[in-house]
Write a structure and sequence with these properties.
By secondary structure, this protein is α/β, with parallel strands linked by helices. It has twelve helices and 14 strands.
Length: 403
């Protein structure tokens, strides 16, 4: 277990005492409540992290963000009431009532339309729980698949922006303000993504996932446009943009793009790729996508290794390669770059496996090589017809529902 700390540099910095059962610490750093940095460190036999060490790490990890936030504060002079877009927050869920309840209670007082899309549920428990919370709209979607639920949310939304939150996250207290600020500065953007940090680090699987990078994408706002000269494979590696657990879109832009591809993020068969696909299509359509770190949620990572292996194999292996093979067919102008990205991905995965295997043998690495193997084999399954198989399954399911 890693003890989790939330430190604000605007307050006096004190020692961080570690509980007896903690093997390390995870530290989120803020400046006047705005998140600006994060790090993890092993316990190494200490009772805690002395204040002097905390200050040193803050300077090392967050110095640039502290300066940029101070500058932003200085040049922000408009004291008038700022405009904000109308907003729908959509929670797409399936048989995870407790997570939905936790999320709804954290956002129920916000000035937004809140919509729960119950995706082919096995019972009425989510509907019954939602009914207890005033102002939340419940919709049942019979077609199985996360992207089917997302498209239903898009059809139901009546606002300028539709935001999607997974049922295993809780937004930070500055989530809504972060989205509004990003929108004010980028009113032409088609989409927004945000920071995703761990809600808890209580199990080995959660610690391993966060040590391997988790969903983190940094603490600087980034506006992504049609080109990026420092990345010849751009925008194929769409994971750089953010994660589907926390994203928002211009409703009109999303409708113009035809919504989400329902052959991706289908559920158990292909539990991934849908967010990557919509990010890629936004960029390739000439629209902008903005990453905003203050648009932050805390995610409940998989608690056991078996579930984590499946995530790497299916969501990050199979889902990623299904998305890429789709792009090969639908975007011939980028075919060479996409083939190069595929080659890079497999080379990278093999290198990752060899590196982790060598360290694992020497007991110097907490990341099991089996995670990389699962991701690699998931990618192979996706490469050889995964997307087309998914399209056929979706077609059969649609005919069953219509029939």
């Amino acid at each position: 277990m890693y003890a989790m700390f939330d430190v604000d540099v605007a307050d006096p910095i004190s020692d961080l005492a570690l509980p007896p059962d903690a093997s390390g610490a995870a530290v989120l750093v803020r400046r006047k409540s705005i998140p600006i940095g994060f790090w993890m460190q092993e316990r190494n036999g200490s009772l805690g992290i002395p204040a002097a060490e905390v200050r040193r790490r803050i300077a090392e990890e967050c110095g640039e963000c502290i300066v940029s936030e101070a500058l932003r504060e200085e040049i922000t002079t408009d004291s008038s009431e700022p405009a904000v877009p109308t907003l729908t927050i959509a929670i797409c869920t399936k048989d995870r009532t407790e997570g939905v309840d936790r999320l709804l209670r954290s956002i129920s007082k916000w000035n937004a339309e809140i919509l729960v899309i119950d995706n082919a549920p096995s019972d009425d428990s989510t509907r019954d729980r939602v009914a207890r919370i005033p102002g939340v709209r419940y919709v049942r979607e019979a077609r199985v698949g996360l992207n089917c639920a997302r498209n239903r949310a898009l059809r139901e939304a009546r606002t300028e922006i539709v935001a999607f939150l997974d049922d295993d996250v809780v937004p930070d207290r500055g989530w809504l303000e972060g989205l509004h600020d990003a929108w004010r500065a980028n009113r032409d953007a088609a989409g927004f993504t945000g920071q995703v940090l761990a809600m808890e680090l209580e199990t080995d699987a959660q610690i391993v996932f966060e040590k391997r990078g988790g969903f983190r994408r940094g603490f600087q706002r980034v506006r992504y446009g049609a080109e990026r000269l420092d990345d010849p494979l751009y925008p194929g590696g769409a994971g750089i943009f953010g994660a589907g657990a926390n994203m928002a879109f211009s409703t009109k832009a999303l409708e113009a793009l035809g919504g989400f591809d329902e052959a991706l993020d289908t559920g158990a068969a292909v539990p991934g790729g849908g967010d990557l696909d919509i990010f890629y299509r936004i960029i390739r359509s000439g629209r902008a996508l903005v990453y905003e770190p203050r648009f932050l949620v805390f995610h409940q990572h998989r608690r056991d290794m078996r579930a984590l292996r499946r995530q790497y194999a299916m969501s990050w292996g199979l889902g990623f390669m299904c998305y890429l093979t789709k792009c090969l067919k639908t975007d011939p102008d980028r075919r060479i770059n996409l083939l190069r990205l595929m080659a890079w991905w497999f080379t990278h995965e093999v290198g990752e496996f060899l590196d982790h295997f060598a360290k694992w043998v020497l007991r110097r690495d907490p990341i099991p090589p089996s995670l990389v193997v699962g991701e690699l084999f998931g990618g192979v399954a996706g490469l050889f017809g995964g997307y087309e198989r998914s399209r056929r399954r979706i077609g059969v399911n649609r005919r069953k529902i219509v029939g």
